[in-house]
Amino acid sequence: MTLLIAGLILFLGAHSIRICADGWRSRQIARFGATAWKIGYSAVSLIGLGLIILGFGQARQAPVLLWTPPAGMPHLTALLVLLAFILIAAAYVPRNHIKARLHHPMLLGVQAWALGHLLANGELADIILFASFLVWALLDLKAARRRDRDQETRYAAGALPGTMFSLVAGVLIWLGFLVKLHGVLIGVPVLG
After folding, report:
1. Strands (E), the chain
2. Residue 134 CB neighbour total at 10 angstroms
3. Residues 6+ positions from 148 with CB-CB distance below 8 Å
4. Are residues 74 and 98 in the same domain?
5. Which residue from 70, 96, 101, 103 has the highest number of Cβ atoms inside 10 Å of its Cβ?
6. Residue 172 to residues 69, 83, 105, 109, 123: CA-CA distances in angstroms?
7. Are residues 146 and 192 in the same domain?
8. Residue ranges making up the domain that contains 29
């Protein structure tokens, strides 16, 4: 569990700098340059992600069950993860109505993903992992909306092709995870 928690601190800590210390972040970028900042940020994030993967794998070897999810929760989780993949796709597809309306679909997607997994998993490691991501995404969304208000950020209008691409990409990725990738990458098959 120690590796999981250390990984979460590194990964989510790096991703929380804009929440807690946006001015400090700007000063470091000005001091060292954007490229050096991105390299350091990426290195810390990758180390954190690696520790999360190792720590979660270790924790699953000695599970601590805190509660047993009701039978229907995996179905609800599948729907929330579908929503998450559509929102995450919309974060990267230019000129779509989802991003134009919601402004931060990535953070909303992480929230849907984490909530879905919290509902369907009752082991301690699951709760630590998914609750951490849920709390981080809620705090980051609040900070991002505050920055948008302060900077009077305007988002590009959506267009049908971008919206359709976001929807199709999200559904295809979701189907890939549902049918095969979740089992291959996470070690827990969704179907079967």
Report:
1. none
2. 19
3. 103
4. yes
5. 96
6. 27, 12, 18, 16, 29
7. yes
8. 1-62
